[in-house]
Design goal:
The protein is built from 9 helices and 8 strands. The chain is of the alpha/beta class. The protein has one domain: NAD(P)-binding Rossmann-like Domain (Rossmann fold, 3-Layer(aba) Sandwich). Strand 6, helix 5 and strand 7 form a beta-alpha-beta unit. Helix 1 packs parallel to helix 2. The chain is globular.
Length: 259
Amino acid sequence: MTLVSKMTAIMSYALITGASSGIGEAFARNFAAKKKPLLLIGRNEGKLRSLAEELHNKEGIDVRILAIDLARSKELPFLPSKLQQMGITVDVLINNAGFGKYGKDMDISYEDDLNMVNLNCRALLALTKLFLPDMLRAKKGAIINIASILGFFPLPKMATYSATKSFVVSYTEALAKEYKDSGVKFLCSCPGFVDTPFHERAGSKRFDSINYETTERIVEETLAALKSNKTMAIVGKQKFWDKIALSILPRWLFIELMS
């Protein structure tokens, strides 16, 4: 576990997982432009350090980094106390880290499937349970969980991934109902196809017929939904079609079309 500090101060931070690239990096840049202190978490320490230095130099904000593999780490339970010792509180938690693997289930390795569940579900749940209590005591804060439109139906050849995103959808909506009068906001953001390295890493093909969304727009629409007190948001250019398809197509037909 590596923590890097640019300055010392007692402030409230936005904690962003998967911050070294893609949607996580876009969240970091968006919050930095608003002068929000940041705690960036990811596996690639070099990328995190470079981004932290860039945002600190450009925006003059405090940026900390934590290089950690959330899928395997056993140190998460100690994170809030470590941060408290450094004078850091977290009032915005963005559970963005995640990955998928494309292929028939028996062609995906045992380790990859378990790590997918560990990162997409277990780490998200752990960080929520670790930082939500302080938000509830303060009666303010926000938790944004990044799911996917694949969280609404099972997708053949991405069985585990779509199942993990179903967990994110269900878990977030339930928490939003449980704590609706707490002062803490909960939002499940469900992007469609986004221009990130996700597809290459998953081993799935890119579709020429699809207009992939930018990470910047995904972040802007997510934060707009949070400001509007929504608990569920399908975000991106495809959102109109996604909403219509999810509401009118029979479940079996949607699965057939997407497989």
